[in-house]
Amino acid sequence: MFTRLREDIATIRERDPAARSAWEVLTCYPGLHALVLHRVAHACWRAKRRWLARFVSQMARFMTGIEIHPGATLGRRVFIDHGMGVVIGETAQIGDDCTIYQGVTLGGTSLTRGAKRHPTLERGVIVGAGAKVLGGFTVGADAKIGSNAVVTKPVPARGTAVGNPARIIVPAAAASTAASAVTANAAASNAADAKRAAEKSAFCAYGITPNADDPVSLAIHGLIDHAATQSRRIDEIVDALEHLGTSLEGLEGADAALLDLRRLSAAIAGKVEGTVAER
Fold it and tell me: Average model confidence (pLDDT) for the chain?
């Protein structure tokens, strides 16, 4: 028990720069208190002392603001940061080295008694503040769920989910390549230092991935660029024809067609820019 406690304290000090000492973590971090009490409640649950298990979990909820059902399974080095408003359901499974921020719900969408109703978080998952992960599916290892995301379907390993409903914005392959590069660079050091460097470089507080653009935003900006390019090419064609001495006045409907093309390009650009502003 004390080995796990020391491990939990070390984990918090590593992931939270505000933690200044082991004593501060032990006495002032509700996430740690909730984990310790959950282990007691979970032991009672497995021993078929169901009422006692629920009572211990409710006392933990009263003391910390974190509600963990005694039937939930939590791995090692799980860090619940801040913690207020966190809800973890009965059939939830949380792997080693996961990080959960305040306001997170690992909930269920089924009322079937005895079924797997709550999500499974594999090793190293980060769930940002206010995120809702709802359903009996799996969030893959090292995946990240952005703040306030609503996730109702599986997330691949090393993927990142944001939005409501959640969208995958970092392909698993790209994240895997980045992780491999980090591992390769760290391999020059000894094994322990390499492992620690890889873990630190992979950790993204609140599930935020730097330079991760939303694919919808990328598509909209692509449309803006395309409209601007078309307008520029139309102007170049007109200038080239005039330079060659070709007058468009003699071509029936040419001026109207070019004017329509210019108006269409301007309308597309204006519409897309308006959509971006609304987003």
Answer: 80
CA distance 94 to 119: 8
Q: What DSSP assignment string belongs to 198-265?
A: HHHHH--GGG--TT---HHHHHHHHHHHHHHHHHHHHHHHHHHHHHTT--STTSTTHHHHHHHHHHHH
Give how far Cα 159 sits from Cα of 75, 107, 146, 213, 249, Å.
Answer: 21, 20, 11, 13, 57
Residue 87 near residue 118 (C-beta atoms within 8 A): no
Buried b (16+ CB within 10 A) or exposed e, 154-190: bbbbbbbbbeeebebbbebeebeeeeeebeeebeeee
Token pair listed for 247: 């007058």
β-strand partners of 73: 93
Local structure of residue 155 (DSSP, 8 states): B
Tell me the two tokens of residue 212: 């991760």
Q: Which two tokens stand for residue 140?
A: 């893959």
Tokens coding 66: 């974190």
Supply 5's token pair: 């406690």
Question: What is the distance in angstroms between the CA of the first residue and the CA of the last residue of the chain?
Answer: 49
User: Which stretches within the chain are classed as H helix?
Assistant: 2-15, 22-28, 30-46, 50-64, 172-186, 191-202, 215-243, 254-278
Rounded Cα distance, 114 and 240, in Å: 74
Confirm if 69 and 117 have CB atoms less than 8 A apart. Answer: no
Confidence of residue 175 (pLDDT cuts 50, 70, 90): very low
Could you tell me which residue, 273 or 165, shows the higher pLDDT? 165
What are 97's two structure tokens? 């080295």
Q: What residues does 110 pair with on adjacent strands?
A: none
Query: Is a pLDDT exceeding 80 seen at residue 201?
Result: no
pLDDT in tens, 23-67: 999 999 999 999 999 999 999 999 999 999 999 999 999 999 999
